[in-house]
Amino acid sequence: MNGVDVQFRNVTQVFGALVALREVELAVQPGAFVSIVGPSGCGKSTLLRLAAGLLTPSAGEALLGGRPPQQLRAQKQIGWMAQRPALLPWRTVRQNVLLPQQLTMNNEQLTINDSQFIIHYSPDELLKLVGLFEFADAYPHTLSGGMQQRAALARMLAIGASLWLMDEPFAALDELTRESLGGELLALWRQFRPTVLWVTHHLAEAVRLSDRIILLSPRPGMICGDIPVTLPHPRDDTAPAFQDVLRRARSILQAEGNGRV
Amino acid sequence: MSNPPASIPRRASVPFRLRAPSGRVVAVLLVGLVLAGWETAVTLLQTPVYLVPGPSAIVRYLAAHWQTLLAAGGVTLAEAMTGLVLGTAVGLSLAVLITFWARLEQGVLSLAILVKSTPVIAIAPILTIWLGFGPAPKVVVTALLTFFPVLVNALSGFRDVDEAIVEYLRSLDASPREIFWYARWPGARPYLFAALKVVTPLAMIAAVVAEWMGASSGLGRQMWLAYANLNMPGLFAAVFVLTILSTSLYQGVMRLEGRLSWEEIGEQ
What we know:
The structure holds two protein chains of two kinds.
Chain A: E1 6-15, E2 18-28, E3 33-37, H1 44-51, E4 59-64, H2 69-74, E5 78-81, H3 93-106, H4 116-120, H5 123-129, H6 145-157, E6 163-167, H7 175-192, E7 195-200, H8 203-209, E8 212-216, E9 223-228, H9 240-257
Parallel strand pairs in A: 3-7, 3-8, 5-6, 6-7
Antiparallel strand pairs in A: 1-2, 1-4, 8-9
Helix pairs in contact in A: 3-5, 3-6, 5-6, 8-9
Chain B: H1 23-45, H2 55-100, H3 105-117, H4 120-131, H5 136-159, H6 163-171, H7 176-187, H8 189-212, H9 219-228, H10 232-260
């Protein structure tokens, strides 16, 4: 599995009278970890929905590997994680991880090649990978928020996606859990090398995780900054270089939002 | 993660006489007390048996006529269950239809409300004229009374689905049918059981009321015969059988729900 390149070509998204995104032009290299940061309501999540093909842009186009996102979605190659883990509460953790496989099997048009990954990694192996193997038979409501997101992570890994779309998946977790899960996510990203679009409003997190930070201005969302992060991992958030990137990003956002960050 | 305590230690060492009586014991005592009071009142006041029979008279009647009553109960139960299955099937199907084609909602619901608002007492005699004294009109009346709560509850259940789950499924290119099967249907379980709890005892009442309008057998007919002959013990005995059947059905639904629930599982 390899990352797919993501392109937004002059994308504008309008909801009624509201312009959510204006003229977004963005090209993401295959296998890159890109954070999208901006204040609430700047269209970050809309950008992810466009990339997943859940929305069709009002103007311009979103492309994954040069093709409309719907194609990659039909091959079940898009990983999706949101702030809420969205596990099926009536299924055990293992059954939840099996869900994408069941959906794949329902679709006769998908060849065995597309589902190879699922066959390669059993749900139990995936659960071991995210440290949740002992809880395979537990129901989601008996797990902590962090463990629920681990389960969602395993479920996302199950499809061997070439693109991970992540909408503040760790935002509802406490600081410590959030940091350790961020570290594990980086390790998994290095292992599987998908392209990651990571939406957050937590600047330090973006600097800690990603190799590129896209800054969005408040309504309408426009790209107002594009900061490469070349610091080696693991990143020390007290290091001057780290603080430097953080300061640069913050000053751009503050200038754009008149301090409304 | 916060582990729930393995088990709450029982107060095993407390002597029996200090333990509070369980809910079941209290219930039995309460019912016994009411029956005893009833029997005493009837005896002391020398109430004629054609007005209010004492529990002992009813028990004597039950003992003497249990075969007739059991057969009548069986007939009513069969009618009620057939009507219930029919009504539930119609209610569920309509709910599924509206879930997939929201445009049908207004039309289907208006029709359903129209049917639901028509007093069944008024149409039951008409149905008896059309369909005869056999089980058919009873089944229809029961179905008419039961489909609506199922329709409304199922519809709410299918709609009250976690949007985050729907969005996740859509990211996997799930079809509306798959979203229904994997998310809406299992998520609607509490709603469907709420409907069943309402509709199951209601089905028994519907069948009995339909039988009053003219029937060749069933509990409703037994009640009608007893009433016509001022046979109060017979009437009360039929009511007793009806109550036992309804309560058992309700218990059955509760048990089924408990067996299918995942909420308590895994919280060892």
